[in-house]
Amino acid sequence: MALRHAVLAALLDGEYSGYQLAKIFDVGVSNFWYAAPQQLYSELTKLESDGLISGRQVIQHDRPNKRVFTVTAAGIDELAAFAAATSKPLSIRDDLAVKVQAVDQLDPAPVIAQLEERAADASAKLALFEQTLRRLRGDLDEEAFLRQGHRIGPYLTCLGGCRLEREIRDWSLSTAALLRTRLTRSPEGVPAP
Amino acid sequence: MALRHAVLAALLDGEYSGYQLAKIFDVGVSNFWYAAPQQLYSELTKLESDGLISGRQVIQHDRPNKRVFTVTAAGIDELAAFAAATSKPLSIRDDLAVKVQAVDQLDPAPVIAQLEERAADASAKLALFEQTLRRLRGDLDEEAFLRQGHRIGPYLTCLGGCRLEREIRDWSLSTAALLRTRLTRSPEGVPAP
DNA sequence: ATAGGCATGTAAGCAGTTACATGATTTA
DNA sequence: TAAATCATGTAACTGCTTACATGCCTAT
Question: Which of B33, B95, B121 sits opposite A94 (nearest CB)?
Fold first, then answer.
């Protein structure tokens, strides 16, 4: 049970099809849960047969038809039970950090390049999240929205996503810059360990 | 191929046994890779039979004997190839964020409690990482160490871990505080969506 | 026509989690 | 003597990733 609740939470925002959810989960639902399309299609099937969501066919004329899903009362109950239970610790897995960890015994050039890419990706994601925040709060400013708005959950998680992306961007840039400096200071072969 | 390289990178710091690695990976190796003990024991077996690490028995009199491992030349090659290849995107999975996302339709009390726990955990982890930083840089200040030190990889990833934990702590605290405020303002039942 | 976005799946394989199992030694 | 720490595994299961497969509609 893992994706299950993330999908239920995402469907609280409204009706979505598997394809639409795939796009949402591709950016990671405000950064805290990634899922591949294939996972979603099979999870939706299971959730529906468990009665936690219900699907509805939408006929489209300009493009292929789709099935959109809504959370049922049983689905809300499931979410409530999940929220009350203890959480698994946050899990992070990062290839690039492994490379940085080992960078002293390795050619730093590809690591630097990847850090710079990562920074660019983080900037793009940050921009996306900030746009989402503006969309969610509408005319209100942030403080007013957080005080008065209904449905602030997605806003709060998106704020978390922004924080994270900012740190990733800054860490990646400063790490890349530092490794570059060391490169030029010891042009040929850093002293072997 | 996933844990593989994280283990190799961790073993660059020196010889470790499965049990010692388990403790390192339990905090998440500066936060970027978590692994359960059972994973490590089986991964170490595989890595050794692939010739990427080599084990050595250490006889201990005060406690059970252990086997410690070192990265072989082939292991370094493997890491180099890994570092040069493109990275998988950073992956995050966070139960608690799912709960926050859904918090509008749920009882917020347990979510608030968990956010506060999370903040406390993050503070503790931050303190631990800052201690690691001091240990790694020894007498030098950070700037000097980063300029002159050999083996700065673990320091850099640990800096990343600190950034992350700080954000987690602050986000958790401000989110918990906000949800509390809304609780007291609408004591009985937030208007149903 | 062909590339790209929309839309939904199946199947196989690999990685990660949970539960179980064992045993020595040290500290309270 | 009971709990905690050190030390290492096996087995079963679940969840995630990768590869493959299909087909519609729109824009170029």
Answer: B33
Pairing, β B53-58 against β B16-17: unpaired
pLDDT computed for residue A30 by the predictor: 81
In this complex, the residue of A82, A185, A193 whose CB is nearest that of residue B150 is: A193
Give yes or no for a contact between B17 and B10, defined as CB atoms under 8 angstroms apart.
Answer: no
pLDDT value, residue B185: 73
Alpha carbons A164 and A146: distance in angstroms, whole number = 20
Residues of chain A below pLDDT 50? 187-193
pLDDT for position B99 = 97
3-state secondary structure chain B: CCHHHHHHHHHCCCCEEHHHHHHHHHHCCCCCECCCHHHHHHHHHHHHHCCCEEEEEECCCCCCCEEEEEECHHHHHHHHHHHHCCCCCCEEECHHHHHHHCHHHCCHHHHHHHHHHHHHHHHHHHHHHHHHHHHHHCCCCHHHHHHHCCCCHHHHHHHHHHHHHHHHHHHHHHHHHHHHHHHHHCCCCCCCC
Q: Does B9 touch chain A (CB under 8 A)?
A: yes
| Residue pair B19/B36 in contact by the 8 Å Cβ criterion | no
Given a cut of 60, is residue B187 above it in pLDDT?
no
